[in-house]
User: Fold this.
Amino acid sequence: MTPHIDVVGLGPGDASLVTPATREIIDGASHRYLRTRHHPSAATMPAAVSFDEEYERADTFADVYREIARRLLEAAAREGSIVYAVPGSPLVLERTVEHLLAQAAVPVVVHPAMSFLDIAWARLGVDPVESGVTLIDGHRFAEMASGMAGPALVAHCHNQRVLSDIKLSTDVAPSQPVTVLQRLGTDDERVFQVDWWDLDRGVDADHLTSLYILEPAPSAARALGRLSDVVHTLRRECPWDREQTHGSLRRHLVEETHEVLEAIDRFVEAEADADNGAVDQADQHLREELGDLLFQAFIHAAIADEDGRFSVADIADGIHDKLVGRHPHVFGDAETIDAETLVVQWEAAKVAEKGRTSVFDGIPAGIPGVALLGKVQRKAATLGVDVSGSVDDLRTELDGIDDESAIDEAQVARLVALLVALANQAGVDVEDAARNSARRLRDRAVAMERLAEGGSEIGASEG
Assistant:
């Protein structure tokens, strides 16, 4: 007999919810297989081989589902036609069925069945289409709910650990209580509400437990999605935004970057002064300026998206993969190393990743001179070049200057190189140091300027 698998669903609750068509298929089968006997209507599959032992044997649910699919394919090859029954509907959150459908060696026919969703919508009194409900696997809640923009029904909440993971996936709880649905379609059915932070304490979870979340907690993915939608709308409907190009936006990106740097300086100063009021104001200002900078990234992405080149999602995926790939000591099996060795490996990884011939490739041409020098020194150090400096070297260089008015560029270059080397060794950002020095000089000069203006006014009044 040609190998063949019929997949049927046992419905969401007791045997009364198993369809007549499913019963007919089961009754006519010589070889029956059952994912689990832990289901109210499992008794409709007499003399069936169950896979409950796989749940005890495997390390993860993914391993369980793969192994069940493998065994079913072997059984079909050995016995010909077999029937495989799963709880609920075969096409609702059934990983084993996904594995079976993904292979081409054995024909698989999936027969329709009633799922727990049909009862859930009735008990909740909602139209899932009109309400925009998202169906989520409780085991993947943190991943699947990150972009959730409406209500969600969370299935597979079968133990306290899953409920705890769901609860701890966010620092901000939904504003509405969570509706718990248990054992739908049985005599022991329960539907009740619980506070978010009591999920793993106020619910005695079992394999027929689901959650309905009316209003999801705020998420970064949803907020960024809203921003992307706004930017695309501006590109379509605002004359100014519509006219912008990568080139025309360049100066705005530079300006917004410098405004972020100024906001950071204000925040650092406020923290140093331990002025809580000033810290709060500086924090708000920094958040606003970072938002302006983020808009620049999103509008560049929108322009590229319109041309079919890349989208903001491509940008996010790219930096995600880059960060994971460059941190094997965090996301892989590599041994944790010290920060200095990590910098060397990081530079080598960038050279290999981008097909560069040198660690100096990719340094922006327009970077300020002092910052450029600091960057080149740091990269040269990863190659073993001695770029160190000392206070004695600095004194020696200064002692060699006999006439300040006759100092030449080469002497200035040596002095700057030594100062930058000392700054690198001390962990001081030379660009920040130069900026802070300029700011202090400006503040002092402004104070003198105001003092002089005040003196002129006093002298005029006295005359």
Notes: The beta strands are 4-9, 32-34, 49-50, 81-86, 108-110, 134-137, 152-155, 178-182, 190-194, 209-213. The domain at 221-325 is CATH 1.10.287.1080 (Helix Hairpins). The CA atoms of residues 2 and 80 lie 6 Å apart.
